[in-house]
């Protein structure tokens, strides 16, 4: 369970997030939507401990999140990641990066690490690409490799920041179906997206954010008024054109 209470966040005096109260139950498949600049990425980075929390509190499994993160990890797929396609790294090499932080200084990946990486690739349906160079992978295949990297830590939490951004429609459907399968096996998932159509099909919980929370409830309880309060007159951004 992730609990956020009275969270405020400012940058140089500018309010990015204010009065955030949110509780996500274990096993939820939650989506965060909102216009550009709404504070979506900021919120997940605060949960991940990538930004310093100065006002309010975040608890994970009942433990203050900084203390929880000292002994646990959250699988994370960021919005943008640049890789040189000419770099001679394989899909397996990329997934192993997800456990690099667990290695004592001066040691190398062992058989157990590689087995976990292969299992993660198996989970995402691309184990057959383990030895392929990343430059030869399609956008959808590479996104699944990055998802495997996020899964290899075996965290029960997974956070994704607009995972559909570089994918075409068939790849998006396939990717979210995979996320739904992971969720059905017990993974708690939080994803940021603009694609309300896809989210309504796969997610169980919707967070409407635009500096403040306008709604945080089950998908079937979201109505047009709440969506309009979140997006204002820019409703078109949730109708993603692939």
Map the helices and strands:
Elements: E1 2-11, E2 14-24, E3 29-33, H1 40-48, E4 55-60, E5 63-64, H2 65-71, E6 75-77, H3 91-96, H4 111-123, H5 139-151, E7 157-161, H6 169-184, E8 188-192, H7 196-202, E9 205-210, E10 212-218, H8 224-231
Parallel strand pairs: 3-8, 3-9, 6-7, 7-8
Antiparallel strand pairs: 1-2, 1-4, 4-5, 9-10
Written account of the structure:
The protein is α/β, with parallel strands linked by helices and 242 residues long. The protein has helices at residues 40-48, 65-71, 91-96, 111-123, 139-151, 169-184, 196-202, 224-231; strands at 2-11, 14-24, 29-33, 55-60, 63-64, 75-77, 157-161, 188-192, 205-210, 212-218. A six-stranded mixed β-sheet has the order 6-7-8-3-9-10, with helices on both faces. Helix 6 (169-184) links the parallel strand 7 and strand 8. Helix 4 (111-123) packs across helix 5. The protein is globular and about 50 Å long.
Quick structural overview:
This protein is α/β, with parallel strands linked by helices and 242 residues long.
